[in-house]
Amino acid sequence: MKKLKVTVVGAGNVGGTVANIISQRGYADVVLIDIDGDIAKGKAIDIQQQLAISNSDARIIGGSDYSLTEGSDISVITAGFPRKPGMKREELLEANSKVVKTVTENLIKHSPNTYIIVVTNPVDAMSYLAFKVSGFSRNKVLGMGGVLDTARLKYYIKQKLNVSYNSINAIVIGGHGDEMVPVMSSTTVSGKPITSILNKEEIEEIINKTKNGGAEIVSLLKTGSAYYAPGMAVVRMIESIVFDRKEVLPSSVFCQGEYGIDGIFFGLPVVLGINGLEKIVEVILSEEEKEMFKRSVQSVKNTIEVMNKLPI
Predict the structure, then answer these.
(1) Which residues contact 270 (CB under 8 A, 6 or more apart)?
(2) What is the per-residue pLDDT for 1?
(3) In whole angstroms, what is the distance from residue 133 CA to residue 139 CA?
(4) Which of 85, 147, 171, 210 could be disulfide-bonded to 233 (CB atoms 3.0-4.6 Å)?
C-alpha cells in the first residue's frame, strides 16, 4: 500500500505544528515548503530527529522547491502574512491573495489530484481563491475555521461547567471571524440543552469569549497568534478524509444553494470522507441565529467582492 504524502506550505508555527503532528502519528510522509527553504529544512530536520526518539518512521523533508511536493495526496496552505498594526483589511487581503494564488498554482502543477486545505486568512476568501485558481471540483478544496472555532466554544463551556469535552456537543458555523455563528440552540452537555443549564447572560458571555478567542491569545502572546489548536484542527480534517471517518466537521466550502447561499465559500457542517466534501448537513437555527447567519454571509460576500477587484 502506497504511503500517504502530505505537503504543508508555510513553515511558520501553524505549518510546523501540522507537520509535526502528522509525522509523529506516522501514517504519512510530509513535505514542508516555505519561501525561506532553510527554515523549512531546519524544522524538518528537527522533527526528523524527534521521530528518532518517538520511533515514528515517517519521512519529513523541507525546502522551497515545489518539485518536492510531487504526488501529494493532501496539501495544506498556511503561508501568508499576519495582520500587522495599522494594516488595512484590504492590504492584508491583497498580500495574502498573491501568496495563495502562487502557492495553489505550484501545488496543482506537481499534484493535480491533491486535496487542498486552506488555513491562510481571511480563510473563506482564500479558500474561494484556491478553488478558482485550481479549477478543482468543490469536494477537493476546503477551508479550516469552524473546527477551531468549535474547539474554542467547547473550551469556554468546559471552563464554565467543569465537564469532560466528551460530554459537550457543539458546533460553530459561518465565516471564520467576528461574524461566526456558535449554534447554542443545539448545543448540549451530557444530552441536556445548554439553554436549560445556563441563563441567557451566561450563554452570551460564552459566545463573546468564543468570538474573541483568537484575539485573547494574540494579546497574551504579544507577538504571533495561536498555532497548537489551529494545527490540530487541520489534522482532524485531514484524518477524517484519509481514514474515511465521515465526521461532521464545520469547514469552509463552496456553496451551491445550500442554506440559501450560492457562489461563495462559507463555514457549514460537512461530512468529510475519502472523497473530501461528501455532504453538507443542515442544522436548525433559532431566529436569533438566523440573523447572525445572514450577517456572516454578507460579511464573507463583501470580502470576496473586494478580493475579486484586486490586481492579483
Answers:
(1) 142, 248, 249, 250, 251, 253, 277, 278, 279, 280, 281
(2) 63
(3) 15
(4) 147
Catalytic (active site) residue 110: no
Question: Would you give the DSSP letter of residue 281?
Answer: P
Q: At 155, list the grid cell.
A: 473550551
Contact 109, 130 (CB under 8 A): no
154, 176, 211, 236: the catalytic one is: 176
Q: Which three cell numbers stand for residue 137?
A: 471540483
Q: What residues have CB less than 8 Å from 310, skipping those under 6 apart? A: 90, 93, 94, 97
DSSP code at position 165? G
- Can you spell out the DSSP letters for 108-145? HHH-TT-EEEE-SSSHHHHHHHHHHHH---GGGEEE--
- Give per-residue burial for 104-136: e unless 16+ CB within 10 Å, then b: bebbbebbeebbbbbbbbbbbbbbbbbbebbeb
Residues of the chain with pLDDT under 50: none
Cβ proximity of 33 and 64 under 8 Å: yes
Count of H helices and E strands in the chain?
9, 14
- Cα gap 133→147, rounded to integer Å: 25
- Which one-letter DSSP state was computed for residue 83? P
| 8 Å CB contact between 281 and 270 | yes
Written as nine digits, the cell of 114 is 491533491
Check residue 95 and give its pLDDT. Answer: 94
How confident is the model at residue 85, as a pLDDT?
66
Which SS3 state, helix, strand or coil, does residue 261 take? coil
Which strand (E) or helix (H) includes residue 256?
A: strand 247-256
- pLDDT on residue 89: 75
Which tens digits make up the pLDDT trace of 147-190?
999 999 999 999 999 999 999 999 999 999 889 999 999 999 99
Q: Which helix (H) or strand (E) holds 301?
A: helix 287-308
